Amino acid sequence: MGGYEILSVGTKLKNLREKYNVKQDDLAGGDSKKITRNLISQIEHGKANLTKHAAEIMLNNLKKICDKRHITITETIEYLMEDEKSQASRILDKYIKELKDLSIYKDGSFTEKLAEVEGFFVNWNLAGKKIAIFELAGDYFSNNNDFYNSSMYYEKAKALMDVNVYSDGLVSILRKLSMVYSYMDKYEENIKCCDFALNQFGDKLSEQYRSIFLFNSSLCYSGLKKYNIALERLKKLEHIIKDTNMDKYCEVLGQEGFCLGMLEKHNEALDVFNRILKLVSEDNLELRVLVMFNLVDAYINLDKVDMAKRYLEQIAQSIDNVPQTSKRLAGLYRDTGNLHKKINEIKSAKSYYLKSLEYAKTYKQYNVVRSVLNELFD
Fold it and tell me: Which of 168, 182, 250, 368 is the most buried (most CB within 10 A)?
């Protein structure tokens, strides 16, 4: 347990005597009516409880002895009285701070400390502290693109919560779970998570959380090819964020256009995508590339290959400037490769697939790795 040790009250009292080289009689003092050597012995062996009154007498007697020896006592009544559960809680607070400090490093120190904490948990079941530590672990693994471990720790945190009672902590965990499920293509688990939040807490959810759960679940319905259900959710979301966040609004419209395209309503999809390009910020390259990708797909489906190629050229000019931190990059390169493959530009398709594979490995998006490898084998 590293430098942390939990001591019983009796052990602390015995250690105190040994440290200052005093006997039980010395701590009891001369007045046997107040405290006896036998009582001290019982406390040290766990057969009697230490009261604050007894602790005050013993420390006072110890102070008198140490003053004569010119020794300063560092222990307090609070130290002697602190029970094992309180010590465990205090130690876990220290662990939480250490984990926060270590979360910025990628040298294995966080996981080593986490293993130490989980060993500590074997004997101390403090739910509130466990939740905080499991959420920290989930955040750490998510930031390092280890979504399997991230989801596992978020699920551990959720399992310790009362899911029937609204709390900001619970909703935060549900949001984070829906995020990592999306990255893992766990569509059904994601929908269950989002629907639980939406149905269980309803009006208690802030507009921000309601928007997140509607959007994430719509993406998963699209992944399951249930495009009509996805559209219904996106329409609800559109009214919530239309006047609050233009980039998010454009992202919602983009998903609507994608669903329309998959339902073979290509002209309607084109109208949506052209509308988005007029609204979306020039600086939001990620969303602009995504919109152009969908425009290309719509034009291909309408046999307007020249228009499709025009937008493919714009994508080629923009995609390398999308922030390298974007977790969508692997998917964007893969899908651009798919578009080149659709119009039989095999060499370009291969180039984009290889870039997609590189980013998918970097971000540990193994679902993308599998799909790209299948395309490369073809």
Answer: 368
Is 90 strand, coil or helix? helix
Query: Model's pTM, two decimal places?
Result: 0.76
Encoding tokens for residue 187? 């569509």
Report the residue count for the chain.
Answer: 378
> Do residues 337 and 329 lie in contact, with contact meaning Cβ atoms separated by under 8 Å?
no
Cβ(113)–Cβ(91) below 8 Å: no
**Tokens for 276?**
């988005």
Dist CA 247 CA 250 (whole Å)? 5
Q: What is the 3-state secondary structure (H, E, C) of 186-236?
A: CHHHHHHHHHHHHHHHHHHCCHHHHHHHHHHHHHHHHHCCCHHHHHHHHHH
Contact 187, 223 (CB under 8 A): yes
Contacts of residue 77, Cβ cutoff 8 Å, sequence gap at least 6? 52, 55, 56, 59
Straight-line distance from the first to the last Cα atom of the chain, in angstroms, rounded to the nearest whole number: 53
CA–CA distance, 365 with 150 (Å, rounded to integer): 13
CA 231 – CA 364 distance, rounded (Å) = 30
- 206-250 pLDDT, tens per residue? 999 999 999 999 999 999 999 999 999 999 998 888 888 888 898
82 DSSP assignment: -
